[in-house]
Design goal:
The chain is of the alpha/beta class. 46% of the residues lie in helices and 14% in strands. The protein has a five-stranded parallel sheet with strand order 2-1-3-6-7, sandwiched between helices. Strand 4 and strand 5 form a beta hairpin. The longest helix is centred in the C-terminal third of the chain and has 19 residues. The N terminus is likely disordered.
Length: 454
C-alpha cells in the first residue's frame, strides 16, 4: 500500500518498490523515507502495473522473483509503457545472469541481496540527477561525434540511450575509430557527468603492477609503498571507468576484475577491509573478444559481464560521406591551435580523401591533415599536400620489398611491429615488450639495431 500519507509535503520524489517480502519492502521504505522520498509498495506484478497506471514515479525498484511472474516482465512493461521511468532490479546474491538479463532488457541498474544501503543511496542519487530529456551530442563547446551518415546517426542514437543507463557497455571497433570519444560522450551526458571519468589503457600496465594500479595499496604493503594510494576504481568512484584495450588483461587479472565488478567492492593490496565503489564500467578494444574467448585467452564470464550492451564504432571507410565534414572540422581545430588561418581543401584533395581507405580511421585522417597543414604554403591544401599512398601503389611497394633483400624486408616488418606496440602502449617500452613477447632488454637491443630513437 502507499506510504506517502504518513510523510509531509516535502518529498522530492516518488518510488515504486515491488517485492513480495514484507521485511524487504519495509527496509527500502524506511531508507527512502530518510532520503525524503515517498514510497508506494507492491507485492506482485499485477499490483505494480495498477500503480504504474495510476501514479507518476521517479524510480521503480523490483525484485526478480515475484508470486505472479518475473521482474523481467515488469522491466519490459515499463520499457514499453513508461519509457522515461528508470527501473532497477534486486537480484539474489551471486545471480549475475539475472542481473545481466535485466540490464539487457532495459533496467537502469541492479542491487544484490542482501541490499547494501550505501549502494542503494548511490543508486537513488544517480537516478534523481538523470537528465529528463535526450541529450544533444553536439553542444557548442562540448565533445562532438560529427557526421550525418546512417552509421554515425545510429551510434549517436544508441549513445543517447546508453547515457540514461548504468549498464556496462562494450565498445568495439578498429583502432582510431573513436571508441574513447564515444565512451566520454556516454559519461558526459549521463547522471555521472559531474564525477570522474577515468580512462585506463590495460595494455600499458605491467602485469606485476596491475592489482595495485586498479585497486590501490596500503602503506607498507610492499617495498616502496610509503603512503596509502587509491587505485583506478577508487579514483573513478561515482563516475565512469573506461577499460581501454581490455583484451590485453592477463587471465589472473581478469578473475580479480570480474569479482570487483560483480561485488562492487575492491580491496587495496595489503588491506583487510574492502571499499564499496560505485563505478560504471565501459570497456573497449579493437580485437574480437568473442574470438579470444573461443581461444581461451579471455574469460567467458567476464566477457558476458562486460558485453551487456555492445556499441560498434564504424570504420571511416563505412562513412565516406562524412569525410568532407570531418576534414573541415579537424582543419579548423588544427589551424586554431597553431594560430593560423584555416586553409581551404581543394576539390581534388577532398576527392582524394574520400577515395582513400583510411586503415587508421579518424586518427589517421587527423595525422594526414596535420602533416598537410604543416607542408602547405598557401591558403589551399592540394591533393599532393596530403601525400596519400594509393592502395595499388602500397601493394606494389610490398611486392617490391618481397623480391628485394630478405633482411631489409624483415627489418621493415620488425620495425613496424615495434612501432605498433609502442603506439598501443603510449610508448611505455616495458608494456610494449610484454605485448611483443620479448624482454625489455631484447626490445631495447632491437630498437638500437634498427636505428629507432629512444
Amino acid at each position: 500500500m502507499g506510504r506517502q500519507d504518513r510523510r509531509g509535503g516535502g518529498a522530492i520524489g516518488r518510488v515504486l518498490v515491488v517485492d513480495d517480502e514484507a521485511d524487504i519492502r519495509e527496509l527500502l521504505d524506511m531508507t527512502l523515507a530518510r532520503m525524503g522520498l515517498d514510497t508506494d509498495c507492491a507485492g506482485t506484478v499485477a499490483e505494480a502495473r495498477r500503480m504504474l497506471a495510476d501514479n507518476q514515479y521517479q524510480l521503480c525498484l523490483t525484485d526478480m522473483r515475484l508470486p505472479d511472474g518475473q521482474g523481467l516482465e515488469l522491466v519490459r512493461y515499463i520499457g514499453e509503457h513508461c519509457r522515461d521511468l528508470p527501473v532497477a532490479v534486486i537480484t539474489a546474491h551471486g545471480s549475475m545472469e539475472n542481473a545481466v538479463s535485466a540490464l539487457k532488457a532495459g533496467a537502469f541498474d541492479y542491487l544484490s541481496k542482501p541490499v547494501s544501503l550505501d549502494q542503494l543511496r548511490a543508486l537513488i542519487k544517480s537516478v534523481l540527477d538523470l537528465p529528463r530529456q535526450a541529450p544533444v551530442l553536439s553542444q557548442p563547446g562540448g565533445r562532438h561525434l560529427l557526421g550525418e551518415s546512417a552509421a554515425i546517426q545510429q551510434v549517436r542514437a544508441l549513445i543517447e540511450k546508453l547515457a540514461r543507463s548504468q549498464a556496462p557497455v562494450y565498445i568495439s571497433g578498429e583502432s582510431g575509430s573513436g571508441k574513447e570519444t564515444a565512451a566520454r560522450l556516454i559519461h558526459e551526458h549521463s547522471a555521472r557527468r559531474n564525477h570522474p571519468f577515468v580512462a585506463v589503457n590495460c595494455g600499458a600496465i605491467p602485469e606485476n603492477l596491475m592489482e595495485s594500479e586498479f585497486f590501490g595499496y596500503k602503506k607498507g604493503a610492499f617495498t616502496g609503498a610509503d603512503t596509502d594510494r587509491d587505485g583506478f576504481f577508487q579514483a573513478a568512484n561515482g563516475g565512469t571507468l573506461l577499460l581501454d584495450e581490455v583484451a590485453d588483461l592477463p587471465l589472473s587479472m581478469q578473475v580479480k576484475l570480474l569479482r570487483a565488478i560483480q561485488e562492487k567492492r575492491v580491496r587495496k593490496v595489503g588491506a583487510t577491509l574492502e571499499d564499496v565503489v560505485d563505478v560504471r564500467i565501459i570497456s573497449a578494444t579493437h580485437q574480437s573478444l568473442r574470438q579470444l574467448v573461443e581461444a581461451g585467452r579471455f574469460r567467458q564470464d567476464l566477457f558476458y559481464r562486460l558485453n551487456v550492451i555492445e556499441l560498434k564504432m564504424p570504420a571511416l571507410r563505412e562513412c565516406r560521406e562524412d569525410i568532407p565534414l570531418l576534414a573541415s572540422h579537424i582543419l579548423a581545430r588544427l589551424a586554431a591551435a597553431n594560430g593560423q588561418p584555416v586553409p581551404r581543401l581543394a576539390p581534388a584533395a577532398v576527392r582524394a580523401l574520400c577515395d582513400y581507405p583510411f586503415p587508421g580511421n579518424v586518427r589517421e585522417l587527423e595525422n594526414v591533415l596535420e602533416r598537410a597543414l604543416a607542408l602547405s604554403s598557401g591558403s589551399e591544401i592540394a591533393a599532393d599536400d596530403l601525400q596519400l599512398v594509393p592502395p595499388a601503389t602500397a601493394a606494389e611497394e610490398q611486392a617490391s620489398a618481397e623480391v628485394g633483400s630478405l633482411q631489409d624486408y624483415l627489418d621493415k616488418v620488425e620495425k613496424q611491429a615495434i612501432l605498433d606496440a609502442l603506439q598501443k602502449t603510449r610508448f611505455n617500452r616495458t608494456a610494449a615488450a610484454k605485448l611483443l613477447g620479448v624482454t625489455f632488454r631484447s626490445l631495447r637491443y632491437r630498437m638500437e639495431r634498427l636505428g629507432m630513437k629512444e
